[in-house]
């Protein structure tokens, strides 16, 4: 038998590959985690099978200490450990919130509490939790404008919207913060600064779990479903796992059960949702490698770039696509152009004499071999154009990394997004090529 070709060595290779990808360095000895566990124990948290660890691909996360079976509970966090609007309203902030008109939003209540408790430092009952929270975040709102400029165009627009949204959140909260002055010896402006509120906003947005909606008269009607869940919020995301997570009204614990199996010493993941990489970047500030939901978006401008400019029916075709919701969410994915993208291209490349068949196109019917072939050819041209553009962007990001060392972390993140997009486009180009060959 040749060396390395047998079953035993295949299994060994697989094991090596799995462990080297997921091997983490246990961090439970660190003082901040010792303090956090004491704090959790005082609040009736019973030791779980998970320990904090640092992993090569995903950073800080939780590692299993034993193997975990399908359906097994991986963590159960008592209600007393959760930070919700109940916590805030029952605190020293409650009376100030009740007085303030119009009522503050649930999000503002949570953010105010986080900033205020962070400011309290050693005096805060939540100190062990606050100590393990990230100091900086990588959601687009936290990125330098020159890094935002290097994002794919549709994500850049959303990043700018996110920045405007947080700025407006800050501006509209300042009078409420002023009303809290009697609680502090220092000027509230210095405590509730933009950067402090931004940190709190990112904390809630990247870490909160979902709870059944609650309603407080002293808070605005916006949905009140967020809870910060210390320790449990150290679980990273994987698009490949499924979990059941919810607050159990009988045990009064927030519980997570895994539907996957985990080996001892592996990183345990949960799934934040079937999100593509743009959404993961926007909402959580990271990109997931090999994400099956990842895709490359095709804008309307690019869609028509390779169509004949002489087509007299083009405006009509575009308005049909708009009316039927086919102008948005057109994508390339790991297995080629999406059905929506191909359908849009088939409609746009309909021959003049076949134009009346446009309804059939939207229903997925084949109109003619020519139409099938033309739409695939255009999809391939768009895909090649994107591959060139993405390669150029990667070179630009790499140059910027050399020039701006201080931005290396932010730029590396943007680079990983473009790298994933390039992989998707290459896979799409290959699929398209096979489809084109099958048609000839
Ligand atoms: C709920 S927290 C998870 C714990 C976090 N890693 C920590 O150290 O505090 C969510 C954040 O973890 C990071 N994260 C989650 N899943 C990740 C993954 N698969 N790869 C890289 N970072 C991830 C992102 O920064 C995200 O905003």
Short account of what is shown:
Helices cover 49% and strands 11% of the residues.
Largest sheet: 5 strands, mixed
Number of helices: 17
Q: Give the tally of β-strands.
A: 13
* Helical amount: 40-55%
Q: β content, as a range?
A: 5-15%
What would CATH call the homologous superfamily of one domain?
set domain protein methyltransferase, domain 1
Pattern of helices and strands:
HEHEEEHHHHHHHHEEEEEEHEHHEEHHHH
Average pLDDT reading: 93
**Class computed from helices, strands and strand pairing:** alpha+beta
Query: What is the CATH architecture descriptor of one domain?
Result: Alpha-Beta Complex
Q: Provide the low-confidence segments as ranges.
A: 1-20
CATH topology-level name of one domain: set domain protein methyltransferase, domain 1
Report the CATH C-level class of one domain: Alpha Beta
User: Which ligands occur here?
Assistant: S-adenosylmethionine
* First-residue to last-residue Cα separation: 44 Å
Sum up the overall morphology in one term. globular
- Which strand order do you get reading across the main beta sheet? 1-2-3-10-7
Q: Tell me the radius of gyration.
A: 26 Å
Family: Belongs to the class V-like SAM-binding methyltransferase superfamily. SETD4 family.
InterPro entries: Rubisco_LSMT_subst-bd, Rubisco_LSMT_subst-bd_sf, SET_dom, SET_dom_sf, SET_MeTrfase, SETD3_SETD6_MTase, SETD4_SET
Enzyme class: transferase
Protein name: SET domain-containing protein 4
Protein model, in words:
It is found in: Cytoplasm, Cytosol; Nucleus. Its main location: cytoplasm. GO terms for molecular function: histone H3K4 monomethyltransferase activity. The protein is of the alpha+beta class and 440 residues long. Among the domains are: 83-228, set domain protein methyltransferase, domain 1 (Alpha-Beta Complex); 296-439, set domain protein methyltransferase, domain 2 (Alpha-Beta Complex). Helices cover 49% and strands 11% of the residues. It has 17 helices and 13 strands. The protein has helices at 7-22, 31-42, 85-89, 94-99, 106-120, 127-132, 145-148, 153-178, 188-191, 194-207, 277-284, 300-305, 314-323, 339-348, 358-362, 369-403, 408-439, and strands at residues 25-26, 50-55, 59-64, 73-78, 209-210, 226-227, 236-237, 243-248, 253-258, 267-270, 296-297, 331-333, 336-337. It has a five-stranded mixed β-sheet, with no helix packed on it. Strands 4-9-8 form a three-stranded antiparallel β-sheet, with no helix packed on it. Strand 12 and strand 13 (336-337) form a beta hairpin. Helix 5 crosses helix 10 and helix 16 (369-403) packs antiparallel against helix 17 (408-439). The longest helix is centred in the last third of the chain and has 35 residues, at 369-403. The radius of gyration is 26 Å and the shape is globular. The two termini are 44 Å apart. The chain binds S-adenosylmethionine. The site of S-adenosylmethionine has 17 residues, from strand 3, helix 10 and strand 7. S-adenosylmethionine (SAM) binds next to strand 3, helix 10 and strand 7.
